[in-house]
Design goal:
The chain is mainly beta. Helix content is 10%, strand content 29%. Strands 5, 6, 7, 8, 9, 11, 14, 15, 16 and 18 form a 10-stranded mixed sheet that branches. Strands 3, 4, 10, 17 and 21 form a 5-stranded mixed sheet that branches. A two-stranded antiparallel ribbon has the order 1-2. A hairpin with a 4-residue loop joins strand 5 and strand 6.
Length: 356
């Protein structure tokens, strides 16, 4: 017999004997019951004990491939009922995307937009921010499901969010920052959703906090009316093509006609203001997981002349009665009745927002 072959055969016998002595069935001494197969549960380990082979030419040893279990420990999934493998319901992560446009153009700082409003005015943005709250999705049965919005320490707090489309560039350099936010994040139970509902603004409980002491984003003092003890629900400031200093036109939406008691206008009111100024937006035929909610500034200003302003009043629309000439056509575009400062027919006539 070839001496080399005899040596390889001896190595093969030793290798197989070593495998038999090293088996472990969980006993303390590592002994085996003589079985050559064993099933492993949800670990991905081999289901058959590997066989040892020896290459007769090289003397290399190895193990043959074996089948493995097709499951992984701890893995869960969801079925058509919206439950995971344990039968528990799961939540759907939602990121609602918002955009601000002027017609078919994205609104941005440092860019001019021609033929805006009843006066066909050229404008440039100085600020573009708004609060949204009371966000609900509409399911395929027509029911409204609240979006659970986590506090994130920056843009979202207790069900309200600040959307910020200005980046501090161009004319947007006054009391602004470079950071932007165009998304509202939250969860709803797994399901099919075909629409969205939300308010532009803050609920009464948040609207009259002290901005100097509030948590983000309600500490954004540029969004607060110090003279009215409330927040600006929307702050969309533009510069028109008039000669300075009469070339600014602001849209500041918020609650007015508040009963501040004996403390004057800087004292928070004890009850909702007579003019809430809080548009309720309803958009149907909308996929909240893939679509975009658009505020069209050109549509909002379609019937207002942003190159004209009433003398001895603040520039643009400040949501209060002295600015009737600057607000009376703008409010209806948001679904608001100018005389009451509240929704007309649930704000169903609004044209400023649409879904894509």
């Amino acid at each position: 017999m070839d001496a080399r072959f005899g040596t390889l055969a001896l190595l093969s016998i030793v290798a197989v004997g070593s495998l038999a002595g090293c088996g472990d069935d969980g006993s303390a001494d590592g002994s085996t019951d003589g079985s050559t197969t064993g099933t492993t549960m949800t670990t991905g380990e081999p289901t058959t004990a590997p066989a040892t082979t020896v290459d007769p030419d090289t003397g290399d040893t190895g193990v043959e491939g074996t089948d493995t279990e097709g499951t992984t420990a701890g893995a869960t999934g969801t079925d058509s009922t919206g439950a995971d493998s344990t039968g528990e319901p799961v939540d759907l992560d939602v990121e609602l995307q918002f955009a601000v446009r002027v017609g078919d153009q994205d609104a941005a700082c440092g860019q001019a937009y021609a033929a805006v409003g009843a006066g066909a005015t050229t404008i440039e943005f100085l600020d573009i921010r708004l609060f949204v709250s009371n966000v609900r999705l509409v399911d395929d049965a027509g029911g409204e499901v609240p979006l659970t919005m986590p506090d994130d320490g920056e843009w979202q707090l207790e069900g309200s969010a600040l959307l910020d489309f200005e980046d501090g560039s161009g004319g947007c350099s006054e009391n602004t920052t470079a950071e932007t936010n165009t998304t509202v994040r939250g969860t709803v139970p797994d399901g099919v959703y075909t629409g969205v509902r939300f308010d532009v603004g803050l609920p009464f409980e948040q609207n009259h906090l002290n901005a100097d002491e509030a948590a983000p984003p309600l500490n954004t003092t540029a969004m607060f009316w110090s003279w009215a003890a409330g927040y600006k629900f929307a702050k969309i400031d533009v510069q028109n093509d008039n000669p300075a200093p009469g070339n600014r036109w602001n849209i500041h939406l918020g609650s007015q006609a508040c009963d501040n008691g004996d403390g004057g206008p800087t004292m928070p009111p004890a009850a909702e203001c007579a003019r809430p100024g809080r548009p309720a937006i309803a958009l149907d035929g909308f996929d909240p997981l893939a679509g975009t909610i658009v505020l069209d500034v050109a549509e909002m200003l379609a019937n207002e002349d942003v190159s004209a302003d009433t003398p001895m009043t603040a520039p643009g629309c400040m949501s209060f009665m002295p600015d009737v000439n600057e607000c009376d056509e703008l409010f209806p575009s948001l679904g608001l009745d100018w005389m009451t400062g509240d929704c007309a027919e649930d704000c169903s006539g609004q044209t400023a927002f649409h879904a894509e």
